[in-house]
Write a structure and sequence with these properties.
Oligomer: heterodimer
Number of domains of chain B: 1
Largest interface: A-B, 23 and 28 residues
Distance between the termini of chain B: 36 Å
CATH superfamily of chain B: monomeric porin ompg
Number of strands of chain A: 14
Structural class of chain A: alpha+beta
Distance between the termini of chain A: 19 Å
Shape of chain A: elongated
Helix content of chain B: under 10%
Order of helices and strands of chain A: EEEEEHHHHEEEEEEEEE
Helix content of chain A: 25-40%
Radius of gyration of chain A: 28 Å
CATH topology of chain B: Porin
Low-confidence stretches of chain B: 1-18
Low-confidence stretches of chain A: 1-11, 67-148
CATH class of chain B: Mainly Beta
Largest sheet of chain A: 9 strands, antiparallel
Number of helices of chain A: 4
Largest sheet of chain B: 12 strands, antiparallel, barrel
Mean pLDDT of chain A: 68
CATH architecture of chain B: Beta Barrel
Shape of chain B: globular
Chain lengths: 262, 281
């Protein structure tokens, strides 16, 4: 998705948790796998660019869903348990009800409490329905992302742009300033070219595109072509500086720049 | 860049009185100063960009001595001061203080051999050795260099001719040479031409000269492998200058000269001036 700065947003180092934790299994990419029916509160946390915690929560209910073929499967299960328990009809009822209404989850739970074989059936139903529920959960997750409309502020996680010369020295390339969760990484791609004739060319992060004053000195430039990157201190936030500035220190002149954001 | 500037000072000094070698046991000695202040420079593309005002001030001694009628010894010893002016901002921003660095510069020692001299023509060959006696890093950021840190050998062929236009007597001389440089520096082609005549009842000697240096671009040194401290590689220039020498006495003279780089690469774009007293016993 794109934020208001027209920069693509990605999420890094997200910490997911659920209450109760046994209700769902959370994949690293945020995909949910429902394990048991019931109310679930899902929370996702990360650290903002300023070091501030950001948290979003979503509550939803996991409901057993059984499609027709699952019902058949359940029936088979029920059949296999017919000889040992009288709750077969309950299970069938539950299966039937579940198909029609999520409120019957309690019925299924009730069944589980009354019959081991029913519990097995119920579990089977839930696991199976996970496949169905996954789609629902993904849908819920999409809503969470869209939850920015619900007041959740999502900070940009990287910026991209072009480096350009402002002098007669060659300087060009594309950059990407990205937060890896703990630090900013300034990556410059393989289209980068810079003149190696200029002495002591330095790279700065600044808020004044014409001066390194009050800026952060990234490094003396020692790479003059090709992809390379700089790891910035954790104290620097993604939105602390607006410009990359290439500066010839002995001559105290600007050689080139790049705008990080408006 | 500074190396080239230093080289100019050397060349312009050494050109004077060349081609006609010294007589045995006689010499020519000059003490002078050479200075330049620049707020822009030629970049490696041949265009020019601004820079914080920097200056060079070189106090130098130049001498020639005739070992015999055919062989002349040549020496050039500079003391170089590199400085940068303080920067003051009208916006109220805190000023940036200036800085300077000075030391012995790169010494040049050479020998010139007279190949032939007849009917107003003079032919000679010279070899000049550039010693890395200056500092190739100086000042707070290392860029206040007074030398390039390399040893070089400049081999040149010279030709000189006396001629007359009407009643006015002139001389002309030219040289071509190759400067072989070490430590990753590119070799260079050098060429110089000069003409002069005496004016104002022969009290003044007026000279006009031009020289060029073109890089062979065969060196490996640039900012990528020199920690950003190098100014001097692949410099090129076409320079035009002149000098006025006043004969104070039969043995003493005073000179004032100026030059300007008409084009160049990796070179300050500013006029350079020099003045000095010469003694010729």
């Amino acid at each position: 998705m794109f934020n208001r700065f027209y920069a693509l947003i990605i999420f890094t180092s997200l910490e997911w948790s659920a209450v109760p934790p046994t209700a769902v299994e959370i994949q690293p990419n945020g995909t949910l796998k429902a394990l048991s029916p019931g109310d679930v509160m899902l929370t996702v946390r990360t650290v903002g660019l300023q070091g501030n915690p950001i948290e979003a929560t979503l509550s939803f209910t996991i409901s057993p869903k059984v499609v027709t073929e699952i019902s058949t499967e359940t029936t088979e299960t029920t059949t296999s348990t017919t000889d040992t328990t009288s709750s077969t009809s309950d299970t069938s009822t539950a299966t039937s009800d579940t198909t029609n209404s999520t409120s019957d989850t309690s019925t299924a739970t009730s069944d589980s409490s009354t019959s081991t074989s029913d519990t097995t059936s119920s579990t089977t139903d839930t696991t199976t329905s996970t496949n169905t529920d996954n789609e629902d959960n993904n849908g819920d997750e999409d809503n969470t992302n869209g939850g920015t409309d619900d007041g959740i502020v999502v900070a940009p996680q990287f910026f991209e742009g072009q480096i350009r010369t402002t002098s007669s020295y060659a300087l060009e390339g594309n950059f990407r300033l990205e937060h890896n969760g703990t630090q900013l990484i300034l990556s410059i791609d393989d289209s980068y070219r810079a003149s190696s004739s200029l002495p002591m060319l330095y790279l700065y992060l600044t808020n004044n595109p014409n001066s390194p004053e009050d800026g952060y000195e990234v490094s003396l430039v020692t790479v003059f072509s090709g992809a390379h990157s700089y790891t910035l201190p954790a104290s620097i936030g993604l939105m602390d500086y607006k410009y990359l500035l290439y500066w010839c220190r002995p001559f105290r002149v600007k050689v080139g720049d790049a705008q990080i954001f408006d | 860049m500074k190396k080239l500037i230093l080289l100019y000072a050397c060349l312009f000094g050494m050109n004077l009185q060349a081609q006609w070698t010294q007589e045995k046991g006689k010499g020519y000695y000059k003490i002078g100063v050479w200075w330049l202040e620049a707020d822009e420079h030629y970049t490696n593309t041949g265009l020019f960009d601004p820079n914080a005002t920097r200056g060079l001030f070189i106090t130098n001694f130049f001498g020639r001595y005739g070992l015999n009628d055919k062989i002349t010894l040549i020496g050039y010893i500079p003391h170089t001061r590199v400085y940068q002016n303080a920067q003051v901002f009208s916006s109220g921003r805190e000023h940036i203080p200036g800085e300077q660095f000075s030391s012995l510069g790169d010494i040049n020692l050479g020998v010139e051999y007279q190949v032939a001299k007849n009917k107003g023509w003079a032919h000679s060959i010279s070899l000049s050795l550039g010693l890395p006696s200056g500092k190739n890093r100086g000042g707070s950021d290392g860029s206040y260099q007074t030398g390039d840190g390399e040893f070089n050998q400049l081999l040149r062929l010279h030709i000189g001719k006396s001629y007359q236009l009407g009643a006015q007597h002139f001389y002309a001389k030219a040289s071509v040479g190759v400067n072989q440089r070490s430590n990753g520096f590119s070799d260079e082609f050098h060429a110089n031409i000069e003409t002069g005549t005496k004016v104002f009842k022969e009290k003044f000697l007026l000279l006009l000269r031009s020289n060029t240096i073109q890089s062979f671009h065969n060196g490996s040194l640039d900012a990528s492998n020199s920690n950003g401290s190098i100014f001097a590689n692949n410099v090129e220039v076409v320079n035009l200058g002149g000098e006025l020498i006043y004969q104070l006495s039969p043995k003493l003279s005073w000179g004032l000269s100026g030059s300007y780089p008409l084009s160049g690469r990796v070179l300050y774009r500013a006029p350079a001036f020099s003045t000095g007293i010469s003694y010729q016993p």
